[in-house]
Structures are given as C-alpha cells and as structure tokens.
Amino acid sequence: VIAFFQPKLLAGKTLLITAGPTFEPIDPVRGITNLSSGKMGFAIARAAAEAGAQVTLVAGPVHLATPRGVRRIDVQTAQQMFEAVLPRATEHDVFVATAAVADWRPAQMNEHKIKKQDGTKTAPTFELAENADILAAVAALPDGPYCVGFAAESQELVKHAREKLLRKKVPLIVGNLGPATFGRDDNALVLVDAAGERELPHNDKLHLARQLVAEIATRLQQA
Ligand code: CTP
Ligand code: CA
C-alpha cells in the first residue's frame, strides 16, 4: 500500500470533496433524500490523503469514519453543502463532487410535525424548489480548482456523462457502472473526458479510488 504512492502523486496539493447524500427536511421528523452510502467519496478522500494531498471532505449524513488525516465538515442539506464548498473552492487545487445532492428541497419547511387529517384520507402535497448545482458553480469560478464530477444513471451512462461534462463545463466526469452499487464495497467506473472513455474495471472502492486519484494527478500535471 505504501509503495503504491511512492513518490506521492498529490504531494503539496489540496483537494476538496463532497460525499454522501443530502437530506432536505419537510418537517422536524421527515425529509427527502437520495440513496448514497458515501463510501466511494470517503474512499477517494482516503486515497487522496494517502497520495499526499491535504483533503477537506464535506459530508452529508452518512455513518462512516473519517479517513486518517482528512478534515471533515458535516452538513445536512444541499444549501449547507453549497455554503461549505463555495467559499473554500478557490483555496483548493482539485474539487471532486461525489455527493448525491438532492435536486429539490421542499419549498417550505414546516416548523411542526405535519399531522394526518383524521378521517379525511387527504394526503398533503409539497411544493419543491430546485437546489443550486454545486459542481457547476465551482466549475464557473475564475481561477477555480480542477473539477471532477460523478454520474449515476439508470440508463445510457456514457451519453449522460458526456452531456454533463459539457453542461457543467468540467474536464472529467466519472460514471458509476452500477447499476446497483449503492452501499456496496465494490464498483466499476468509466472516466469520460474530451479524449474519450476509459473503464476502471470492477474492484473494491478503495482500489478504484486509488486508481482514480492517479488519473486525476496525471490530468493535473497536464492542465
Ligand atoms: N451535483 C452538485 N450539485 C447539485 C447536483 C449535482 O454538485 N445540486 C454534482 C454531483 O455531485 C455529481 C454531478 O453534479 O458530481 C452530477 O450529478 P447528477 O445528479 O448526475 O446531475 P444533475 O445535473 O443533477 O442531473 P440529473 O440528476 O437530472 O441527471
Ligand atoms: Ca441530480
């Protein structure tokens, strides 16, 4: 393991990463969230720290231990994640967005628990508001970091990944070759950039994270 990163590929570099889901409260006891264990993001944070980077990890609600040497900031909502990331982004060389950010939040947060309307069988309805795109906002910063996005799709992964590359104006999108990787310790990835596609075949998430960190380090040197 130690020999893997000799010399250290990200020595002297700083890396900011989002991981896990976000949770958007409806009322004090309920909310909207996404499926994400955070394991891939935490593995990348660990691999980047092993590679000599100074790592800041902005984590949504997950049950995972902080990797050794990594600075962690816990958040709950997409707005909190945005506010944790944006002011710090230009201080970093690399930004990796692995978080499964909720695209929408309830437009209003109810201060008290919503109660059933006894006997009426009428379900409440919720108006939703769109959350800001953290990755696109960081990618648009002048003198911003090298940005890496993730894409988890249920169909046409590479097509959607390439579309996100262009729409969010980031140099690299990493596709999750699931389909059902949530919570598992293994995964397979496809790297999509202007040069084409490169698959990182099925492996445990830490091994994939180390390969991805090596790929990012190579691209940083070329950037
Ligand atoms: N992302 C983000 N902030 C958001 C939404 C997404 O930073 N509000 C990031 C994710 O962390 C990921 C990338 O953007 O790195 C792609 O996320 P994804 O949900 O696949 O893209 P969307 O633009 O939200 O498109 P859609 O969900 O409709 O496919
Ligand atoms: Ca989304």
UniProtKB/TrEMBL annotation:
Its cofactor is FMN; Mg(2+). Binds 1 FMN per subunit. Its EC number is 4.1.1.36, 6.3.2.5. Keywords: Decarboxylase, Flavoprotein, FMN, Ligase, Lyase, Magnesium, Metal-binding, Multifunctional enzyme. One of its GO terms (biological process) is pantothenate catabolic process. Residues 15-223 are annotated as: Phosphopantothenate--cysteine ligase. CTP binds at D103, K113, F150, K164, K168. It catalyses: N-[(R)-4-phosphopantothenoyl]-L-cysteine + H(+) = (R)-4'-phosphopantetheine + CO2; (R)-4'-phosphopantothenate + L-cysteine + CTP = N-[(R)-4-phosphopantothenoyl]-L-cysteine + CMP + diphosphate + H(+). It comes from the Bacteria. One of its GO terms (cellular component) is phosphopantothenoylcysteine decarboxylase complex. Residues 10-218 form the DNA/pantothenate metabolism flavoprotein C-terminal domain. Pathway: Cofactor biosynthesis; coenzyme A biosynthesis; CoA from (R)-pantothenate: step 3/5; Cofactor biosynthesis; coenzyme A biosynthesis; CoA from (R)-pantothenate: step 2/5. GO terms for molecular function: FMN binding; metal ion binding; phosphopantothenate--cysteine ligase activity; phosphopantothenoylcysteine decarboxylase activity. In the C-terminal section; belongs to the PPC synthetase family. In the N-terminal section; belongs to the HFCD (homo-oligomeric flavin containing Cys decarboxylase) superfamily. Catalyzes two sequential steps in the biosynthesis of coenzyme A. In the first step cysteine is conjugated to 4'-phosphopantothenate to form 4-phosphopantothenoylcysteine. In the second step the latter compound is decarboxylated to form 4'-phosphopantotheine. This is Coenzyme A biosynthesis bifunctional protein CoaBC. The lineage of its organism: Bacteria, Pseudomonadati, Pseudomonadota, Betaproteobacteria, Burkholderiales.
